[in-house]
Design goal:
Elements: H1 5-16, E1 20-23, H2 27-32, H3 39-53, E2 59-62, H4 65-68, H5 71-88, E3 91-98, H6 102-112, E4 123-126, H7 136-144, E5 148-154, H8 161-164, H9 174-185, H10 187-191, E6 198-202, E7 221-224, H11 233-240, E8 247-251, H12 253-256, H13 262-276
Helix pairs in contact: 3-5, 3-13, 6-7
């Protein structure tokens, strides 16, 4: 990796715009594309998506679960997707939401954030709910290897509110504590005038009234839920306010459903990009 993840992402966003295309080849998508629900169908879907978006978007976000569901054959397809994206110059943010302690988190880090692994990507999502400090090792390795970590902060699923909007020991919400945790890791990059490599995940459909403060974050904000899940560009502006330039909106199903033709996928990408301004 050349340079930090934060700066590679900022450069790519300046060139292609902020849209992140989610690659979630769930069975319904395979059916819609008239592909079999097996590793062959998975591969055709995943690699077609990379072909369609290469040179048009900064970053893609494959959802690991839809590959893991096919066992070793599915993981092999995920490896192909990562390789295809790398060759095409598209950043890969793997949505794995890993979070554990000790040697177990070290093993996840070795798989996704370490040179030489066939699953190594530009960034991964991580769960901090065993304590944000449980991610320190992964973040340190990410920074050493020029990669990034996205910490779950305020997800769009309604069940998340129970935990994420609870009071933290510092007196704010748990969501705000996670944003502040990421900001702490990005402080050195802020001094250099760079984007930090620790981002946060904040859903595009959360209540704008949560009052989250991103002023010190200095890192990107992955905002899943654009499109089919109901999130709009106007919602993003309401939720993030002055932090909108840091937002990486993710649209998965709305773009996948435009397939299987490459032209249809590209048209959906362009339409989404235009809506973001």
């Amino acid at each position: 990796m050349t340079g930090s993840y934060g700066e590679r992402l900022r450069t790519a966003v300046a060139r292609y715009g902020p849209l992140c295309v989610g690659i979630d080849p769930h069975p319904g998508v395979l059916d819609r594309w008239d592909l079999p629900r097996d590793a062959y169908g998975l591969e055709r879907c995943a690699r077609t998506m990379i072909e369609a978006v290469a040179g048009r978007v900064a970053i893609v976000k494959p959802q690991s679960a839809f590959f893991e569901a096919y066992g070793s054959a599915g993981i092999a397809v995920l490896e192909l997707l990562i390789s295809d994206a790398r060759e095409a110059g598209v950043l890969v943010l793997l949505d794995v939401k890993r979070g554990d302690i000790g040697s177990t988190m070290d093993a996840y880090t070795a798989a996704y954030l370490t040179d030489g692994s066939s699953l190594a990507v530009d960034a991964m999502t991580a769960s901090p709910f065993l304590g944000p400090g449980s991610l320190d090792g992964a973040i340190a390795q990410a920074e050493r290897s020029g990669r990034g970590v996205y910490v779950l902060a305020a997800t769009s699923n309604p069940e998340g509110v129970t935990v994420q909007q609870a009071a933290s020991p510092e007196g704010g919400t748990i969501s705000q504590a996670m944003i502040d945790f990421a900001a702490g890791h990005n402080a050195d990059a802020a001094v250099r005038g760079e984007w930090g490599s620790v981002g946060v995940v904040v859903g595009a459909t959360i209540d704008p009234g949560t009052g989250l403060d991103f002023a010190a974050l200095n890192g990107s904000i992955l905002a899943p839920g654009l499109g089919t899940q109901g999130g709009t560009a106007d919602d993003l502006r309401k939720i993030f306010g002055d932090a909108y330039p840091l937002v990486i909106p993710s649209n998965s199903r709305g773009i996948l459903n435009a397939g299987p033709g490459v032209a249809g996928i590209r048209a959906a990408v362009e339409e989404t990009q235009q809506s973001l301004g």
